[in-house]
Write a structure and sequence with these properties.
129 residues; mainly alpha; 0% strand; flat
């Protein structure tokens, strides 16, 4: 069994235990294809998808901000700043200095999936209004 397939299976199982799949939060097929065909560059695949999700997050944030009245804009700015601080600290914790190369993969995957989940969350606010 390829190491990539094994790790992807682990990541899917972890996501499933949390009730959310990669597809549910908007991680696309291109990411899966990258992981399936680029055994040597897991971090590269994650980095490309993280950048895509970061663009998506910023787009969702700006669109939501454009729709909100001033008091709600302030509340969203505060929430987003707190979320960014949490995401960075939480995902940084995954990068255990004694965890080997998999710790770096886990930290990067955390950044990618957390960013995708937050983008989905902000997109959902727009759909509910």
């Amino acid at each position: 069994m390829k190491i990539i397939t094994f790790l992807c299976t682990v990541l899917v199982l972890v996501g499933a235990t949390q009730g959310v799949s990669a597809h549910d939060i908007g991680i696309g097929k291109s990411y899966s294809a990258c992981m399936d065909h680029n055994e040597d560059t897991m971090i590269g695949c994650i980095t490309v998808e993280f950048k895509r999700q970061d663009v998506r997050l910023n787009k969702a944030y700006k669109a939501l901000m454009a729709e909100l009245p001033p008091p709600r804009k302030t509340a969203l700015q505060e929430a987003q700043r707190a979320w960014l601080k949490f995401r960075d600290a939480n995902c940084g914790f995954y990068n255990d200095p004694d965890g080997g190369s998999l710790a770096l993969v886990n930290a990067n995957d955390c950044m990618m999936t957390a960013t995708a989940a937050r983008a989905r969350e902000l997109e959902g606010f727009r759909q509910n209004d």
